[in-house]
Amino acid sequence: MTAPGRVGVIADSTLQGHLLSSAVKGQGYQVLVSTEPEALENRWLDTDALDLLVVDLSSEDRWQQFLDDLLERAEVPILFCDGQAPVRTDALYPKWERRLVTKLVSFIGKPAVEERLEVIPARPSQVRIPQPREFHAIRPGDQPRQVWVLGASLGGPAAVKRFLDCLPANLPVAFVLAQHIDGRFLDTLCGVLGRDNSIHCKIGVEGEALRHGELAIVPVDYAVRFRHDGRIQSTGEAWEGPYAPSIDQVIQYVGEGFANACGAILFSGMGNDGAIAAPRLAATGRPVWAQSAETCAVSSQPDSVRETGCVSFSGCPEQLALQLVERVRRELVQAPLPQPQ
Q1: What digits encode the pLDDT tens for the residues 175-225?
Q2: Apex CA 111: angle with CA 110 and CA 115, to 5°?
Q3: Is the CA virtual torsion 123, 127, 128, 131 positive or negative?
Q4: 3-class SS of residue 264
Q5: DSSP alpha helices (H): ranges in 148-208?
Q6: How much is the pTM?
Q7: Do residues 292 and 315 make contact, with C-beta atoms less than 8 angstroms apart?
Q8: What own/partner pairs with CB < 8 Å and gap ≥ 24 does 137-144 have?
Q9: I need a surface site. Which of 13, 17, 58, 206 has the fewest CB within 10 A?
């Protein structure tokens, strides 16, 4: 059986058709046909031709007869868009694209992804939060000077691994990784990312703490916030939107928990997760960086954030690591860490 994800686009504007097709492809779906109404071939209306038709007509009155025929003859689901797409550089574009993605997922599910570690799971019907367990107190010397969100999706694990491998020991920074992944592979991902470097990787479950020199991978099944003391706290709810975990939410919650002592880096991935929260973070003066397109396995995720104009530095994973080390070095010169008593 063919995996869902074959989409046809019908638009009465060349620009609108291009924007719709690019947005659909950017989420991992296949666009098998993109056409104006009068050029639509009958074969695309057959049951086995497509999984979904996406229709966006700026002048429905002009195309009323076409729409009547389409509704009568089409044997595949039809998604009618409810508004013209803004240009990609418009501040409203990420939200428009996010609404489109949510509708695509509700109609035909998430697109198939070949790489097992990268599969985005279906939203859980019930939020499962682990039972509380005993945790050690956070010593003042363990509290991170900075907390950086690492957002990644398809191709992300390899890029994040390269980034971590370039970081020196004792860097006074903690990392929070929001990786689109099947929750069954979190432990495997944790082991892979922490191998051959000085970063201690762990799953950031309810009650865990952020400490410098550590990377906490946020859970897939439920959303988490970050208290000012570095403790991780479940919201008791699933992640919002079509992505789990939601990079946008993680950026928002880290920003709320750590004020000016945070930043975000977007790595390889598919979709536009992060494109809503990252500009808000940058607007407060906090840094947002992204992996360069040519070094990504899939660049639509960092590209979507770059297109908002909020990214102040782009580079390969190694360059991003060096940039972070230099930024921390400059800040330590200006405000050295307190010496232990």
Answers
A1: 999 999 888 889 889 999 998 899 999 999 888 888 889 999 999 999 999
A2: 115
A3: positive
A4: strand
A5: 156-165, 186-193
A6: 0.75
A7: yes
A8: 138/209, 138/211, 138/229, 138/230, 138/231, 141/340, 142/209, 142/211, 142/212, 143/211, 143/212, 143/229, 143/230, 144/172, 144/173, 144/174, 144/210, 144/211, 144/212, 144/214, 144/230, 144/261
A9: 58
